[in-house]
Amino acid sequence: MKGEIHNQNSLRWHGTQRRIGITGGIASGKSSVGKFLKEVKGFPILDADVYAQEALAPDTKLTKTILKKYGDVIRDHLEKEKPTINRSALSKIIFADLKERIWLEKLIHPVVQERLKQELNKRKQAPVLALIIPLLFEAKMTAFCSEVWVVNCDEAQQFERLMQRDRLTAREAKLKIQAQWPLESKIHFADIVINNKGGLEDWLPEVDKLC
Question: pTM for this one?
Fold first, then answer.
C-alpha cells in the first residue's frame, strides 16, 4: 500500500504546459500564494475548493444526495425554496467521524477531478497554470501537475491561523488539521517547498524567483 501511494503521488504531467500544483496543510497559506500568482504574475488559477463548493450549491445532484443521507441535521432552514446544505453542520459531522468523511470525499473527489479536466481543456493554450488543490496527495491528483509546491508553516501557526480564519475552537481546529496528511508527509512528495513560517508575505521573493 505504501509503495502504491508513493508511485501515485510521484506522477507528474509531462506536457509542454507548465502546471503548478499548490498544496499544503489547511491554513498554511496556499490561497495567498495563489493570489500572488494570479494578480501579480497573471497565471490562470484552477481552485479545487471552488469546484467542491459549486458541487455543493443549492439543488445540485450532489447536494440532494447528501441531504438525503443526513436530512434536517445539515439542512439550511433559512433557505426555503431550494434544498441547501448548512456547511458548518456538515463540517462538524465529517471532521468528527472518519467513515462519514470518506463517504463524502468519494462523492466529491470525482466531481472535482472532472471539473479540473474540463478547465484544463479550456486553457490548453495558456503557457502556465496554477492548480490549488488542498487534498492533492490525499486524492492522488499529482498527475494533473508538472510540478508540486507545498506551502509549509509551523503547526502552532497553522492552529492559530485556522482558529482565527474560521472562528473555530481548538478542538475543531485540531480535528480539521488531523483530517489531512501531516505537512511532513506532503513535503516528502513535493518538488518545491514554500517557506511560510515567517511574517506575512515573507515568501514573496522565493515564489517570485520560481516564476
Answer: 0.89
